[in-house]
Amino acid sequence: MEILISQVFAGLSLGSVLLLAAVGLSLTFGQMGVINMAHGEFIMAGAYTAFTVQQVLGSAGVSLLVSLPLAFLIGGTLGLILEATLLRRMYHRPLDTLLVTFGVSLILQQLARDIFGAPSVDVRLPEFLSGPVMILGTPVPASRVFILVLTVVVVAGLSLLLSKTSLGRRIRAVVQSRDLAEASGISSRRTDALTFFIGSGLAGVAGVAITLIGSTSPTLGTTYIVDAFLVVVAGGIGQIRGAVIAAAGLGLLQVFFEFGTTASIAKVIVLVIVVAFLQIRPQGIVATQTRGLA
Amino acid sequence: MSRDHRPSYLEIRDLRVVFDKFVAVDGVDLRVEQGDLRFLIGPNGAGKTTTIDAVTALAPAQGSINHNGHELVGRKTHKIVRYGVGRTFQTASVFEDLTVLQNLDIAAGLRRRPRDMVRTRQEVSPRILEVMETTGLSRHQETKAGVLSHGQKQWLEIGMLMVQDATVLLLDEPVAGMSQGERDATGELLTKLAADHVVVVVEHDMEFLRKYAQSVTVMAAGKVIAEGTVAQVQADSTVQEIYLGTAGTKSLEEAKVEAELLGLDPEAVAVSGSTQSKEN
Amino acid sequence: MTTTVSPQQTTTTPPTTGSAELPSVAEGAGVWTTGPRGALLGLGIGAVLLLVIAPLTLGGFGLDLLGRYLCVAMVAVGIGLAWGRGGMLTMGQGVYFGLGAYIMAMHMTLADTTLEGETIPTFMRQNGVEQLPELWGIVQHPVVAVAAVILVPTGVAGLLGWAIFSRRVKGAYFAILSQALAAAFAVLIIGQPVLTNGSNGLSNFHSLFGWDLSDQANRTVLFLVVAAVLLVMLAVTWQLYRSRFGELLVAVRDQEERVRFLGYDPALIKTVAYMIAALFAAIGGALFVPVVGIISPADIGVVPSIAFLIGVAIGGRSTWLGPVLGSIAVSFAGTQLASAFPSFWVYLQGLLFILVIGFLPGGLASVLGLVRRRRSQGANDDGGQAAGSTTAPVSSEQEATR
């Protein structure tokens, strides 16, 4: 029983990290069809923000609280720059944005390597997050509980933003029909920029969270980006609810299969499951257009 | 071009197409035989294009669609095409990056063996030459389809249909955007094709219809409301009501013109139309 | 069929009114691909350069380096087919490259082990393994190894491609799945140190099919084989591009749904192209191992898999020779710059992705195409016809290769 609980918790914990990494991606991919490979490097930027803030402030607790909003701003600003300089002119070529943003990710990685050095660095845990907490009689790391809570807060906040605010309505309108939204006076350009800011900012937040459970290196982003994309694909474009379910599912499956085999085998099995899942519910079917095929 | 000697037919029975909860086609029965030139008309949203989509598995179909003894419902698009069903689209869909010849060659290549696929085209088949001649595209053989005029693209699509070895031809607004001369040429061509094909044409152009239709099926709100010759349909009271009373999404002017072309009294439209908004 | 319309009716179709030349999706597709004579000339020049001049002028080191470029270029040829012609952005070619490479590396390691009179490779012994794993036993025989290099990657690509394409998963979804595949494959290799020596990879090969690899004469022969294989691949793609299959592939790339309505199954066409791309990558990988002398997960993961794309994009993804030339150029630049200015090289790679894909999607071929068009336009000025416009006759020979 204790094993089961700790396994389920480990799965949900992994899922929450994946979700945090993927939720911003889901937003930008969903709204603009832009596949932002540099999203992983925005996560890395968030992690290095946490590291730098701690170097400056010293106190682990205070710097965690400072880094969360700061990393959001830094990630968001990076996203904004990327959107304004490159992606804006490429909305009609979504597949190519993937490679362009990969170029950006190469550059950001190398920048991190030149600034912070190739070896990984560690961010100290605040006192109140370093011990275990008891959940249902099972000890689990407090840092992972914190990430789980942070994820719930972020996702809930984002859902509220999308459903209740005027920005959210604009975003949803543009997601549903870019042309129609334009016609009804919504500036899709400004909406795009804002969406990208928020989505990329969330990557920064994810980066801070990840420093709590592992070390930070220039290649941090590459370890998360592929899984984050899988979450988005399995969850369905632009669907936050889908992303939540997919992240939890992938996290649980990964941990579950890891238990029986090894981490690497589990990863392959999970990928096979995603491919199989797409067999049943293939997204990206564009066959509903009927008047013409263009 | 039926492969045996019995005349080809397309028989649709109790066809239903449902999107989410919206019923686009609601129990349509339709039988068209070789030698007929059937026009499918009706106000916007009547389910005409959706019916064609259902035949070609582009829209989810329930019911039965039978072509020369083959049940088509539940089969994949490319299989249905292989049973001899060909279609065109409202917006001409040709391969813009390929030449006219390459477009036609692909359309004609359905039953090619794999060995021939990896080979280079040694010569243009007589059938393709004939079709290019017919559609006036011979001069543009090596032109990329993307630079053709709108009308020429439509003709290329019809040409692709002709070389496709299809027994059922479904054409969705084939003369939209064509000049008068082009329309007549298309009409003549369709008339000739109808002799040995099952031909169904979805069309809004009533003048074209009156000139070339051998029979007409009228749809409204997902149902067939009338069927017969042009004269029979014109005399049908339900049709008059549909076109005069609930002109659907058409403007009053459009409905008037359409009614006139159908041979109905346009003033009746003005009367019944005055109660509704001009455009919705 | 008797459906000829009388001449009067056909003339009612108005002539194209000098429509301006539209920029084509496959911009510059004609560059570096003329007619059969041009292709023969290109292959001939390539053959002379690679099979005669390179072995005579380059030393052993230079030849090895060039051989390495050529192996990577084989992957590029396949990517050109799948991505440039077929529109499938495959970001996981490292998997097929890696499959070919590891099968070959396993075979060579075993052969060396046997020559040394041992039964299991050194790294396994160090890992405490006492019996040769079955997976290794299979590829002990050279014929089986070669067959596996060809069949395993092609089979995997066939299964995966069919599963994905038949459900109409395409575009970004396919790209992401292929990338996840590369990630999972690299993790799998690293995670099985007993079978694969983990992240160290397999290296220190002494012989290939009984030939001593330290003998320079043998290495030269190996290079010649590599060059010949690449030339054969180029000949194959050239024929494919001008064949009906090539035309159909372009049709699928541009309007997949429409192809369905002509009675073809696009999934089949795409799967075949994907399998060929996988086969080329696998052969490149298998030859990479004896030429370079090491294969490790660093050569096959997510980043190297995407890095294969840059040369293809620079050269012109939908052209015949573009991917090969671009790939060789990038490899060359890589070795020149990477050791001297490692961080500059990474920045440059990043910039190349951004500039080429973002601003020059047709690759350098489209620049050449533009230049060529300008020139022929100038030559035709007195005729009043722009080259390539609808009224200008295009020789069928030129068209055949597009």
UniProtKB/TrEMBL annotation, chain A:
GO molecular function list: transmembrane transporter activity
A Pfam family recorded for this sequence: BPD_transp_2
A cellular component annotation (GO) from this entry: plasma membrane
Chain segments annotated as transmembrane: 56-82, 94-112, 142-162, 193-213, 225-248, 255-278
Keywords: Amino-acid transport, Cell membrane, Membrane, Transmembrane, Transmembrane helix, Transport
CDD domains for the chain: TM_PBP1_LivH_like (cd06582)
GO annotation terms (biological process): amino acid transport
Protein name: Urea ABC transporter permease subunit UrtB
From TrEMBL, chain B:
Gene Ontology CC: one annotated term: plasma membrane
Record GO terms (molecular function): ATP binding; ATP hydrolysis activity
Keyword annotations of the record: ATP-binding, Nucleotide-binding, Transport
Domain ABC transporter: 10-246
Origin superkingdom: Bacteria
PROSITE patterns with a match to the protein in the record: ABC_TRANSPORTER_2 (PS50893)
Pfam families registered for this protein in UniProt: ABC_tran (PF00005), BCA_ABC_TP_C (PF12399)
Protein's UniProt keywords contain Glycosyltransferase: no
Family matches, as InterPro entries: ABC_AA/LPS_Transport, ABC_transporter-like_ATP-bd, ABC_transptr_urea_ATP-bd_UrtD, BCA_ABC_TP_C, P-loop_NTPase
CDD domains: ABC_Mj1267_LivG_branched
Name of the featured protein: Urea ABC transporter ATP-binding protein UrtD
Origin organism lineage: Bacteria, Bacillati, Actinomycetota, Actinomycetes, Micrococcales
Name of encoding gene: urtD
TrEMBL record, chain C:
Subcellular location: Cell membrane
Biased segments, Low complexity type: 1-17, 377-388
Keyword Membrane: yes
Any one annotated GO CC term: plasma membrane
Keyword Cell membrane annotated: yes
Swiss-Prot/TrEMBL keywords: Cell membrane, Membrane, Transmembrane, Transmembrane helix
Protein topology in the membrane: Multi-pass membrane protein
Pfam family, any one: BPD_transp_2
Protein name, per record: Urea ABC transporter permease subunit UrtC
UniProt source species: Kocuria subflava
